[in-house]
Specification:
Blueprint (H helix, E strand, L loop, with lengths): L4 E6 L4 E8 L2 E9 L3 H9 L4 E7 L9 H18 L4 E7 H11 L1 H9 L1
Parallel strand pairs: 1-4, 4-5
Antiparallel strand pairs: 1-2, 2-3
Length: about 120
Amino acid sequence: MKGKITIGIDPGSEVSGMALFHGRKIIEGRNVANKEVIEVVNYWCSGSPCTVVIENIVAYGGRVRTQTLETCKWMGELCYRLKLQEGVKQVLVARSTIKAWIFDTFPDIVLPRLKK
């Protein structure tokens, strides 16, 4: 696939949400077991340079659950493993920034789902 390839990852403690973008078009999205995320990144990038955008966990008030800690551990491993991948640029982005971008970029998808 030629052009700008971006992969979005919403990390979870055991499963992460992933989406493949080509420019501003959504090509594919799915939930992937964490142990398979790097394999999917490699497949989607297919040896081409790509950017991986990871939803970052930011400080918040409230109790920190075990699931949150497991997600943080996975994010550390994911970031380390992506640094080892040639041609892969990674970016950590706050959830609020990602939500705003999704609303602005894909209103025809988001708004009907919100109304439902």
